[in-house]
Amino acid sequence: MEFGMFHEFQRLPGATDASAFADSFAQVDEAERLGLDAMWLAELHFNPERSVLGAPLILAAAIAARTKNMKIGTAVTVLPLCHPLRLAEEIATIDHLANGRLIFGAGRSGFAHTYKTYGVDYGESRERFAETLAIVKRAFTEERFSHKGKYFAYDNVRLSPRPVQRPWPEIRVAAASPDTYEEMGTMGHAIFVAARTGNLSELGPLVKTYQAAWKAAGHPGKGGVFLRVPVYVAETEEAAREEPRESILHLLRTIGSRLAESAKLESARAIEKRGERGAKMVSIEYDEVLRERMIVGTPPQVIDRLKQVQEELGLDGILAELNPGSLIPHPQVMTALRLLCEQVIPAFK
After folding, report:
1. Among candidates 338, 343, 335, which has minimal Cα distance to 302?
2. For the ranges 119-133, 201-215, 261-275, which has the lowest average pLDDT?
3. CA-to-CA distance for 109 and 41, rounded, in angstroms?
4. Cα angle at 276 between 259 and 113, to 5 degrees?
5. Same structural domain, 206 and 276
6. What is the pLDDT of residues 203-216, one digit of tens each?
7. pTM for this structure?
8. Domain total for the chain?
9. Do the beta carbons of residue 214 and residue 173 sit within 8 Å?
10. Which CATH number characterizes residue 110's domain?
11. Pick from 131, 133, 166, 169: which is nearest to 151 by CA?
């Protein structure tokens, strides 16, 4: 199973931007030293209380330059806010800087306020996502191409550079709504699933839908499934339970409020159940969070829980959120990272 760290380049309360970058790069360097498989970069805009990760592709290039072995992934690049050709150039360039270690994670993001700030209609996000992804894939694979779509039109394009990995860096897509699971299975792309906005026990049927669509489309294998989940490892059970409490509850309350608010938009789709999921996140009790939305404990406890989830979902890997909510102090995050790499991961290799 592939093990990665999902990183938001957190800005803790009272910290400066400079210290947020310094602590985050220290965690990246330690992950490389400890042999972690992948470092995953979020994309978070206009949220200074939480993160300094507004330019993930720039940070991906910086990480590529300071590492040799660890893969670098985007989780996710928000495609509807991107210029497709510029995105293709930057992804290909980073793939060269990383010598073929880049994983291209793509999605729409559920934060409607970011779209509003950028001046993009969130109601267009699904169409923009599909058109942008199609253009990027053509840029990676065709010597020359032209395109005329709803949002973009290009004539006789030649991409330079082309990515190291052929036909493209592995594409993984965030699946948050039920129809996305089937769509990505049909297209043949690996998926991210997440435990933030829904319970782990609810993911199994959705993954089966994805795998059925993958098989029906005639793709080999069963499709790749990667779980983004808050993970916290500590020396004692009490520390593992209590140290992340304030941070994860703060995260769920914040995201839940925004999700519920976005349900009022004209573009909100009933299938996504934003209002229902947002209300649940705001009111959820911590015991349920521990059971259904986090993997916490001592190293043996985390191993047991991960094996259970791996079997239930057929996981190919995880993106471990070691500081969900951005309130866990840097030294504790470093300890959790070390315990994960030294005592948990070897049980899966």
Report:
1. 343
2. 261-275
3. 13
4. 10
5. no
6. 999 999 999 999 99
7. 0.93
8. 2
9. no
10. 3.20.20.30
11. 131
Give me Rg for the CA atoms of the chain.
19
Angle between helices 203-216 and 178-187 (to 10 degrees): 30
Which residues, in sequence order, are bridge partners of residue 6? Answer: 40, 321
Q: What are the contacts of 343-348 at 24+ separation with CB within 8 A?
A: 343/233, 343/299, 344/233, 344/299, 344/302, 344/303, 344/306, 345/3, 345/35, 345/36, 347/303, 347/307, 348/1, 348/3, 348/303, 348/306, 348/307, 348/310
On whether both 136 and 108 belong to a single domain, the answer is yes
Length of the chain: 349
Residues 170 and 65 in one domain: yes
Locate 166 and state its tokens. 């052929």
d(CA 189, CA 343): 31
d(CA 316, CA 225): 5
143-152 tens-digit pLDDT: 999 999 999 9
> Do 190 and 114 belong together in one domain?
yes
Give the domain extent around 269: 245-287
